[in-house]
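Predict the holo structure. Ligand: S-adenosylmethionine.
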Amino acid sequence: MNLYDVETVKRILAKHGFTFSKALGQNFLINPDVCPKMADSLLANSETGVLEIGPGIGVLTKELSRVAGKVTAIELDSRLLSVLDETLSQCDNLNIIQGDVLKLDLKQVIENEFSNCSSVKVCANLPYYITSPVIMTLLESRLPIDEIVVMVQKEAGERLCAEVGSRQCGAVSVAVNYYADSEILFNVGRDSFMPSPKVDSVVIRLKIRKNQLYSPLDEKHFFTLSKCAFSQRRKTALNSISNTMGISKEKLIAVFDKLNIDRNVRAEKLTMQELIQISDNLLETAVK
Ligand code: SAM
């Protein structure tokens, strides 16, 4: 069954009475080059477990099943279960879980599904409406996964992979950088999907570091500070932090001056070390 052939896909979907849901980000891949490239980029083997989010009609799932030892896919839309039963009937190393990826206990899912695997990776063409929450959940829950290869909207991918201290950097780039090494693997045009979305996409890789590079005094405080620094992008980092964290400007000026950081700097010019130093110093002065 050729799942890249538009007529075949239409026939299967019609047979199961399926209609696309925009709200669930249902744009299915029909470009035959993309899924094999994503699957091969994992460098997986028979001991690798792959967790997929949103299999749709199973185009990527089929490729993942080819390269990995075990594939588990989480699909929210129960209407797709009978479709997947038909399209993936040949894959014997596969399990589909019906549920919302943001509500499931992923640690438990990984434990249950991949106990015989030596490594676990996440691979998906993510529904765009939950890109950041999914990626942040995967990173912050410190799941036993070693990499994430996902397709996301182009602008989101550029932001996620932006270097800290660069123009495109935002709070989400700081968070990604904290846990992982990131790279953009390749571009995917809007014509690669059915139905075609209004935006282009990119496939990105987040390689999760085994050993933590950064150690702020208080991780939660550091992430709050970073979000606040970027929350008013037209303002200086100092003003943005002061306005959104309710810290007096005098206190912040003292910390910035002590650290030799320009009082007028914008958040996107701050380095990871500087963000950590500001967070740590604010905590230290709060204790005194
Ligand atoms: N992997 C398929 C492909 O590449 O053609 C489909 C990708 S489509 C962009 C996103 C998929 O995620 C859809 O099948 C949609 O139903 C599913 N989805 C949306 N929200 C979800 C959620 N919260 N949890 C799990 N799956 C979800």
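The pocket of S-adenosylmethionine is lined by residues 24-29, 53-56, 59-60, 74-77, 80, 100-102, 125, 127, 130 (CB under 6 Å). The mean pLDDT is 95.
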